[in-house]
Amino acid sequence: MKRFSERLKALVAEYGAMGLVLWYIVFGCTFLVFALLIEVGLDWPWLESHVGESGTWVGAYVLTSLTKPVRFGLVAAMLPVLARLRRRVVGEAPASEPAAE
Fold first, then answer.
1. The pTM is what?
2. Greater model confidence, 49 or 60
3. Total structural domains within the chain
4. What are the respective helix, strand and coil percentages of the chain, to the nearest 5?
5. I need a surface site. Which of 36, 41, 61, 81 has the fewest CB within 10 A?
6. Residue 33 in domain
7. What torsion do the CA atoms of 77, 83, 86, 87 make, to the nearest 10 degrees?
């Protein structure tokens, strides 16, 4: 069984920029959803005790940071599917296979 760091290196080598872009898209969506939930009045007393009166953005960042393991798993699961879809639409050869000339 591969270690976590080996799997991460393999993902970065195979998917590169696509993985980074997907990571930031998922991060941004998660952050904005938490910010919206806090703004509309979702009351989490434990969050107020840890963050205090720092504001919506700090609370949203704290909650987003807590979801990092889940977001990593989501991105790792979505990358192969999106890469296959992109190859089908764009017509690229996979990174691990040389392009046929």
1. 0.71
2. 60
3. 1
4. 75, 0, 25
5. 41
6. yes
7. -140
